[in-house]
Structure formats: structure tokens, C-alpha cells
Amino acid sequence: MVTIGDKISLPDFPLLLAPMEDVSDPPFRAVCKDNGADLMYTEFISSEGLIRDAIKSRRKLDIFDYERPIGIQIFGGDEESLALAAKIVDVTQPDLLDINFGCPVKKVALKGAGAGVLKDVDLMVKLTEAVVKSTSLPVTVKTRLGWDEGLLNIEEVAERLQDVGIKALAIHGRTRAQMYKGEADWTLIGKVKNNPRIHIPIFGNGDIDSPQKAVEYKNRYGVDGIMIGRAAIGYPWIFREIKHFVQTGELLAPPTVEERVNVVRKHLRKSLEWKGPVVGINEMRRHYANYLKGLPNIKEYRSKLVTLNNGDDIEAILDEIIVRYSNYEIEASPIELINYHEKCPVN
Ligand SMILES: Cc1cc2nc3c(=O)[nH]c(=O)nc-3n(C[C@H](O)[C@H](O)[C@H](O)COP(=O)(O)O)c2cc1C
């Protein structure tokens, strides 16, 4: 069992759904939860936005009981705003409050928020302490290895943040300068985990895209659990596949076409429920291609899915897909980790 603070108990080697702006909203989280995500986070929420009462920011606070345990993630570079935002988050009573010190994109990092604070550990500690003091929730942090190759300070960061009271740390094995380039390097994550002074759970993050890699990294770096982002987009089954492999050493068969389509259906229904008929339909459009990847000649159906404007019509197409591909077995194929260096929606 892995515990965060004294109220959150997770199973051994928990799998976390990474916070992802414009992706990890309630509809997406619902299908990840169904498929085994043990702890999930909201997409990051600007502390300034929350204080200004920006509708978009407030909406991101929506969480549901079936999602628990769930964390709300905030970011910001100003002590007072972060502390105030933490108080606003308190009202919605998530299970934990996570601070983002990892976002590399210019509009965030260069304002001293996100990964920006990796250049100023004193400030990072001060901001964290302010949040810890202003909330009754367990506070956790998600960050990167450091600012760049010349400033790999995660070992110092981990100790100092633990000293001011954070209850878990998730580390993405890249620097801010790397954005999403190159391969994530987990060596330093392993070092933090194996530092005898560190007693809070350490979650590793970066480039996990298969059960084999998850187990290899678990064994090699000894982390308490792993956080998965891009591999879950269009493939929430990654969680159950990793779990099965950890428990049995055997690979689970990939989801059938019917299972895939039914997850699309649930995602769509949740999207309509939470976002309403117009935004719900629109925002769902970017997900179909990811879910249906690998099906031959799917283009014709896909173009219908992304042009229809009514939930029932879309579901009728989904039914057609199940019938059309009823005898088709999708082979297990590597999950493609999109390089968000240029595509990152928060850029
Ligand atoms: C589309 C997208 C949006 C993201 N938004 C956030 C965010 O809001 N907060 C955060 O801490 N990290 C964010 N990240 C980073 C991920 O949480 C994660 O650290 C990163 O994708 C590496 O993990 P992966 O290789 O499993 O995808 C985002 C990543 C992507 C791809």
C-alpha cells in the first residue's frame, strides 16, 4: 500500500493519470478510472484565474465522487495568489491539492510559474510552504528534473519540499529546456527515491507507453508508482494492461473493437453531460481518431463522427462500426507518444 498523508491509501505500485490541459477533464477521467487509474488529477488551473473567478478556471474544479481519490492541480508564481487559490480549492474538497512546478511553456514558465521556479529553489520552497499553510488538504508537487542540463536540482528540491510538508512528489524525467524532446531520463528520479532522507512517495513520470516498460522502470528505479500521460490518450486500457502485467507477468489482450467503441460512447456521453450539446460534441471530435487508430478504412466513419452534430446520430455510427468490424481483431501495436513540443496546447 502507498499512502499520501494520512487519508489517501493507494494500492501497491499505483498508476496515476497525469494532469493534462485540455485532455484530463471529467469525461476523459471517467474512462481512465474505469480502466484502472488509481489516482487522477485535474488539468492545471491558474491561481490568478481562480481568484479572478474566471469561468474557465472555476469549471476545471468540477470533480465527482466516483473519481476519488482525485487531486486538483494549480499553478502560479505569486505566493499570495497561490495561497488564496488553495483556499478556493479547499471548498471543493478534492482528496489532495497538487502544485505544478513543471509546465515548460513560455506563457507559464517565463512568468516564474510552472517550471520557471526550478531556477529559484528558495522561491519554490516559499510558494509551496504558503500553499501548505493555507490548506487543510495534503499538498503534493509535480515537477521536472531541473531547469536545464546545467541545473539538475531535483534532489535538493525533493528534500526541501518534503521539509516544508508536501506529502508526495511526481517527477517528469526531463528538464524544462527539453520540453518534450529526447527521452525521459529516470536516473535522477531513482536517486531521489533511494535517498534515505526521503520518506514521501515518489512517482516517476515520462514516456511510459507499455506494460513491459512500466515494470522495467519499476524494478530499475524503485519508484512508488508511475504517472502516465500521453499513452492514455485514446488508450485508457494502458492502466489495466500494466496492472495485469505487474500482477501476473502476462500481457493482456488488447481491447476488442466493441470495447473500444463502448469507451468512445461513454466518453461522448460524459462529454455531453458535462459540457452540454454543443461544446460536448465539438470537443469530442479530437478524440475519435485516437481511439479508432489501427482499424482499416476507418476514415469514412471517422469523417462522419467529426461532422455530425447530434449525440444519437454519432452513437448510430458507433453501432455501425461495431457491426462492420465485428470479426476484426486489432493487433497490439506500440502506443505512439506524440511529441507535444510544438503541439502542446498550453503553448
Ligand atoms: C497535452 C498535454 C497537456 C499537459 N498539461 C499538463 C498540466 O496541465 N499539468 C501538468 O503538470 N503537466 C501537464 N502535462 C505534462 C504531463 O502531465 C506529463 O508530465 C508529460 O506528458 C510526460 O508524461 P508522459 O510521457 O506519460 O506523457 C501535459 C502534457 C500534455 C501532453
TrEMBL record:
Pfam family, one: Dus
Highest taxon listed in the record's lineage: Bacteria
UniProt entry keywords in alphabetical sequence: Flavoprotein, FMN, NADP, Oxidoreductase, RNA-binding, tRNA processing, tRNA-binding
Cofactor names: FMN
Domain DUS-like FMN-binding, first and last residues per copy: 16-315
Uppermost EC category: oxidoreductase
GO MF, one annotated term: oxidoreductase activity
InterPro entries registered for this protein in UniProt: Aldolase_TIM, DUS-like_FMN-bd, DUS_fam, DusB-like, tRNA-dHydroUridine_Synthase_C, tRNA_hU_synthase_CS
Entry EC number(s): 1.3.1.-
Catalytic activity: a 5,6-dihydrouridine in tRNA + NADP(+) = a uridine in tRNA + NADPH + H(+); a 5,6-dihydrouridine in tRNA + NAD(+) = a uridine in tRNA + NADH + H(+)
Function: Catalyzes the synthesis of 5,6-dihydrouridine (D), a modified base found in the D-loop of most tRNAs, via the reduction of the C5-C6 double bond in target uridines.
Family: Belongs to the dus family.
Protein name (Swiss-Prot/TrEMBL): tRNA-dihydrouridine synthase
Species, as recorded: Niabella yanshanensis
Lineage: Bacteria, Pseudomonadati, Bacteroidota, Chitinophagia, Chitinophagales
